[in-house]
Design a protein that fits this description.
The complex is a heterodimer of chains A (about 750) and B (about 300).
Chain A (H helix, E strand, L loop, with lengths): L1 H9 L3 H54 L3 E9 L8 E4 L5 E6 L2 E6 L5 E6 L8 E4 L7 E5 L3 E12 L6 E8 L3 E2 L10 E6 L2 E9 L2 E10 L7 E10 L6 E6 L5 E6 L3 E6 L7 E7 L8 E6 L5 E6 L4 E8 L5 E8 L7 E6 L5 E6 L3 E6 L4 E7 L5 E6 L5 E6 L3 E8 L7 H5 L14 E2 L10 E2 L2 H31 L3 H14 L4 H18 L1 H22 L4 H6 L6 H25 L5 H9 L8 H25 L3 H9 L4 H12 L1 H17 L2 H6 L17 H8 L8 H34 L4
Antiparallel strand pairs in A: 1-29, 2-3, 3-4, 4-5, 6-7, 7-8, 8-9, 8-10, 11-12, 12-13, 13-14, 15-16, 16-17, 17-18, 19-20, 20-21, 21-22, 23-24, 24-25, 25-26, 27-28, 28-29, 30-31
Helix pairs in contact in A: 1-2, 2-17, 4-11, 4-14, 5-11, 6-11, 7-9, 11-14, 12-13, 14-17, 16-17
Chain B lengths: L1 H12 L21 H5 L3 H7 L1 E12 L2 E12 L3 E5 L6 H8 L9 E9 L2 E2 L7 H7 E4 L10 H11 L5 H14 L3 H4 L12 H13 L5 E5 L7 H14 L4 E5 L3 H7 L2 E6 L2 E7 H6 L4 H7 L5
Parallel strand pairs in B: 3-8, 3-9, 6-7, 7-8
Antiparallel strand pairs in B: 1-2, 1-4, 4-5, 9-10
The chains are: A alpha+beta (about 750), B alpha/beta (about 300).
């Protein structure tokens, strides 16, 4: 085109130019139209590629923060100049005001400059000094005094926004002092918890002895409420000395860490009779003692740090006998030296531990992974604080200097391990693949394992294809090779119309109509393939003995009409037989039999129903493409085979099927892709339970259905939101890979049969 | 080229002179077989002259359209019989009647009888695969299966029931030798048949056809898609094959008919115009239409 245009423009040689000029106008118009068409086509192709890339980019951009490594940046170090070495520290949720527990009580300081803020004295000190404190994490804590008393206290921050600015005002609430040790020994180690029934405090009063202080408040409707305080001394059978104490949030168990590396559990469920309920060796390093201990949010996972740097997490799990045992869940990456401080997050299962050399590690309790190392300047921290929003770390050293880091760690719960691997969740007996994105409480441990969903997608696809491929392929083979053309002219469009059914209609029918129906006739359903096949074989056998006159009357390719009553009869017999079989062999109730004999439970909405419904959606695609490729096998090959004395069936199997294999392969692959991406049917016809079980009698949850179910409720930008995008990305990758492989194989096969 | 045709004619001279029986209006529709002429021959000649295929009053309709009209002819054993005629005269249709490949076409009705070796092939109780085993066919366009050379040849015997591997090797070698292809492919039996050249593919199809040991070989314009060298090879091969097989060939190419065939049938508009010794047809046709056709006045 371009060349001829040039010739036209140049106008030489003259003869040619004159000849062309007769039709010149038309020629240039044709060239113009041709060029326009080519540009339009190119534009369309480029636009498609661009939009697909844009979709991938958008999805990947949403997914990226999930797998980004967390970072911490040092804001600065300020000197707070407390009156003595701080025992513990805390901070408000905006990281404006920190408080230090010191010898004189509680001291508030500004985080930015370390300046002291309105001193709030601890009432009732009476000349004693604070020598110990329970971890001031979420709400109430207690301090131990040098004269053997304990004072419960609580720090509260009230936030107001006057004139557009933010004002945080700290407040210290102080309870009545309780005399814990009549011997007036200083209380350095104690644990404190407030339960709905009242506060419980445990304090170490000797190397091997603790005092349990409980206050029971009974609130009467009329009249004054009464407080009943009790105190119990409890000697402990331990080696070494008490190193640290920890109470769970329900006040049910007290854990005692010892200098010999043991963790002892004291069962407090009956407050009047505390029992020592066993001890475990919390560290496997010889010579190590427990140095810090504490619960993660939810009070189910106990983190134990030892004097040699080991950090491990533990859970109380019910053993077979119903007895609860402390079980180790994870060993975390160890510190180089003794663990001196621990702080849990109040948002998720993350926590930080610090060692004597000033290294702070950010960990995640669900996965057992260490996410980040924060290096201090070599000083020893007395306390570390994970800010309430888990967006900052504050460490305080013996000289009272505060170091602040800003933490960028929006999705600590999602790592490759938690998304695809087995994870040991709280309350589980062993590591498992679990998807459970939301729960009822704030301390819920989100379980984001995509494995059950990928499994569900593959399971649904497998059962759908198991149902669809034989039917569609055999149907296509029959329609293309044996069926009468007139009949095929009716059957093929009918099957193709099946593809036009919206999948939400199919899912609705499958879930509400088919599932209850199937439930009634399961044994008959399983008999049907056998009975119907047998019946058809018998019928075909009998047909051979039919007189020639009768046989000739049936036109070749329309025998299928004769089979329809036989298939219907087969179905009827199967359902009748099913009842009989269920009564005789399955003790009258197939569900009971399944459970007892095979250990399978029957759910009404199960994979079988999905297989039928999704198979119904996939059959038209596979059938049409396969039929086309089978019908396109060159007729001279068929004739060649028949001329050699092959039967039509031999020809179909040995010549037609292999020759059409590229088309059949892509038919199956496209059907596969459709089943993988199918959403509404799996959403409506399964129970959407994310279990990993191949049983055909229970449901599953597919990636696509999961997105449809959960995306409307996922907060934008949250971990769940991004994990759902990751699921979408996986679906995209799966179908992309499938289609690419299908196309490559098809091209290769086609190249092989090019010369036909 | 001409010499070979002459040779064919020469060969015919040694045999009995055959005349088309009957001179009447439709007499030319009766086929060759010399009734009286054959009688005088020696025993060997007699068996060679016995009709392999007897076609009597064959009519074939595609729906309402009459494609073959009242055809009667005998095809002799171990001879090459050529069907010639202009396009659409029904020669291929007639050929396909002989192995009932027309069954594949919808709406075909056939009346009249065709006997092969005395058996009526349109008998509904006849096992059609048995018939096709006895009547092999080579098509206009070479149609090797998309399999290896070996598997192509072995296909026929295999579908009849698998002989043991050794026997199969023997069958494949013998068939390829029979089709004069063995020398060219002996080292590449496991290569795809589609890698062969057009002439080789056509000879492979012949090998495939003779692997099931048929008695009759139908050839539907086997050389029309081939170059002259490949054509010459196939023609040479046919001269070899007729010692063992009865060959019926449809050809557009009158020189080819003259070169390779012993008998020639000229069909025109679905009717058999003339059937006689090839020499007779080409040297001294008895019908004006035949003469017009072979001299190239139409067709």
């Amino acid at each position: 085109m371009v060349d001829s245009a040039k010739v036209l423009a140049a106008g030489e040689p003259r003869g040619v130019a004159r000849l062309l000029s007769v039709t010149g106008g038309r020629v240039t118009r044709r060239i113009r139209v041709d060029r326009l068409a080519r540009r339009l086509v190119t534009l369309g192709g480029v636009a498609i590629i661009f939009s697909i890339l844009a979709i991938i980019f958008v999805i990947a951009a949403e997914v990226y923060p999930l797998l980004k490594k967390p970072t911490a940046s040092l804001v600065g170090t300020v000197a707070a100049r407390p009156d003595s070495a701080p025992l513990a520290a805390g901070v408000d949720e905006y990281r404006e005001i920190a408080y230090l527990v010191t010898g004189a009580g509680v001291q508030f300081v500004g985080v930015k400059d370390g300046a002291p803020i309105a001193p709030s004295p601890l009432a009732g000190l009476k000349g004693a000094t604070v020598v110990g404190t329970s971890p001031p994490r979420r709400g109430p804590f207690a301090v131990g005094l040098s004269d053997g008393r304990v004072i419960p206290a609580e720090v509260k921050f009230s936030v107001s926004f006057p004139e557009g600015g933010r004002r945080v005002v700290p407040e210290l609430l102080v309870g009545d002092p309780i005399a814990a040790d009549p011997g007036k020994r200083p209380i350095t180690r104690l644990a404190h918890v407030v339960t709905p029934a009242g506060p419980t405090t445990a304090a170490a009063v000797g190397p091997k002895e603790i005092v349990l202080l409980t206050v029971k408040e009974t609130k009467a409707l009329i009249g004054p409420s009464t407080k009943e305080a009790s105190s119990q001394r409890l000697p402990l059978p331990i080696k070494g000395e008490i190193a640290t104490l920890s109470l769970d949030g329900r006040g049910e168990d007290l854990f005692v860490g010892t200098s010999s590396g043991q963790v002892l559990r004291v069962d407090l469920r009956d407050p009047s009779d505390p029992k020592v309920a066993g001890a475990v060796a919390a560290t496997n390093r010889p010579g190590a003692g427990v140095s810090v201990m504490g619960f993660l949010i939810g009070d189910r996972t106990l983190v134990v740090g030892d004097t040699l740097g080991g950090v491990s997490s533990w859970q109380l799990l019910q053993a077979d006998g119903g007895e609860r045992r402390l079980t180790k869940v994870y060993d975390f990456m160890p510190h180089a030296g003794a663990v001196v401080a621990f702080a849990p997050s109040s948002r998720d299962k993350g926590f930080i531990t610090a060692d004597a050399s000033g290294v702070t590690l950010l960990r995640y309790g669900t996965t057992g992974e260490t996410l980040l190392t924060i290096k201090g300047e070599g000083e020893r921290f007395e306390g570390v604080v994970l800010a309430p929003k888990a967006d900052g770390v504050i460490a305080v050293d013996a000289a009272g200097r505060l170091s602040q880091w800003v933490l960028d760690n929006p999705h600590p719960e999602s790592t490759l391990k938690s998304l695809f691997g087995k994870v040991w969740y709280e309350g589980y007996a062993a590591p498992e693949y679990v998807w459970q994105s939301t729960g009822g409480t704030d301390d819920f441990e989100a379980k984001f394992s995509l494995s059950p969903l990928i499994f569900g997608t593959l399971k649904g696809t497998l059962y759908a294809l198991l149902f669809a491929i034989p039917l569609a392929l055999l149907g296509a083979l029959y329609a293309s090779q044996f069926m009468h053309p007139t009949l095929k002219g009716i059957v093929k469009p009918t099957v193709e119309i099946m593809a036009a059914l919206p999948s939400v209609v199919l899912g609705f029918l499958a879930g509400l109509w088919l599932a209850p129906l199937v439930e009634k006739v399961v044994p008959g359903l399983f008999l049907m393939p056998i009975v119907t096949t047998l019946l058809i074989l018998i019928a075909v056998f009998c047909w051979r003995f039919a007189p020639v006159g009768v046989r000739r009357r049936v036109r070749a390719g329309t025998e299928v009409w004769l089979l329809i009553p036989i298939v219907i009869l087969g179905g009827w017999i199967s359902f009748q037989l099913g009842g009989v079989v269920e009564h005789l062999l399955l003790s009258g109730d197939y569900r009971g039999w399944l459970l007892n004999a095979l250990g399978l439970t029957y759910d009404q909405r199960n994979s079988m129903v999905v297989g039928f419904a999704m198979g119904f959606a996939v059959i038209p695609i596979i059938f049409t493409i396969a039929e086309d490729s089978l019908a396109n096998v060159p007729p001279h090959l068929v004739a060649g085979s028949l001329a050699l004395g092959a039967t039509r069936w031999q020809t179909a199997l040995r010549i037609v099927l292999p020759t059409a294999s590229p088309g059949i392969f892509s038919a199956i692959m496209i059907g596969f892709g459709r089943a993988v991406g199918e959403t509404m049917i799996v959403l409506m016809a399964t129970g959407n339970t994310p279990v990993m079980d191949w049983s055909i009698f229970n449901g599953f949850r597919a990636l696509s259905a999961n997105i449809a179910v959960e995306l409307p409720e996922a907060p934008e930008g949250g971990t769940l939101f991004r994990v759902l995008f990751l699921a979408a990305f996986l679906l995209f990758v799966m179908t992309f890979l499938l289609n690419t492989i299908a196309e490559l194989v098809r091209l290769k096969l086609r190249r092989r049969y090019r010369y036909l | 080229m001409a010499t070979r045709a002459e040779m064919a004619v020469e060969e015919l001279r040694g045999e009995v002179s055959v005349r088309a029986s009957g001179e009447g209006q439709r007499g030319y529709n009766r086929g060759v077989p010399g009734d009286t002429g054959v009688q005088g021959q020696a025993g060997e000649a007699r068996t060679r002259m016995e009709p392999m295929i007897e076609i009597r009053k064959l009519n074939l309709k595609y729906g309402e359209k009459l494609a073959l009209e009242d055809i009667s002819l005998d095809i002799l054993k171990h001879k090459v019989t050529a069907f010639i005629g202009p396009s659409g005269c029904g020669k291929s249709t007639l050929l396909r009647c002989l192995n009932r490949l027309n069954d594949l076409v919808d709406g075909v009705t056939i009346t009249g009888t065709i006997r092969i070796g005395g058996t009526d092939i349109n008998d509904p109780n006849l096992e059609i695969t048995e018939l096709r085993k006895r009547v092999g066919m080579v098509f206009q366009k070479s149609n090797p299966f998309p399999k290896t050379i070996y598997d192509n040849v072995a296909y026929g015997p295999r579908i009849q029931g698998l002989p043991p591997r050794l026997a199969m090797d023997e069958i494949v070698e013998r068939s390829l030798k029979g089709a004069a292809l063995w020398g060219e492919v002996r080292d590449r039996l496991q290569e795809s048949a589609l890698s062969l050249s057009g002439g080789q593919q056509q000879r492979l199809c012949i090998a495939r056809a003779i692997a099931v040991e048929p008695e009759i070989l139908l050839m539907d314009e086997p050389c029309s898609a081939l170059d002259p060298i490949a054509t010459a090879k196939i023609e040479e091969l046919m001269a070899q094959l007729k010692k063992q097989y009865t060959i019926v060939i449809v050809t557009h190419n009158m020189q080819q008919a003259a070169r390779v065939s012993d008998y020639t049938a000229f069909l025109y508009l679905g009717a058999l115009i003339e059937y006689n010794l090839t020499k007779q047809i080409f040297v001294n046709p008895s019908k004006k239409q035949t003469e017009d056709y072979i001299t190239g006045r139409f067709g």
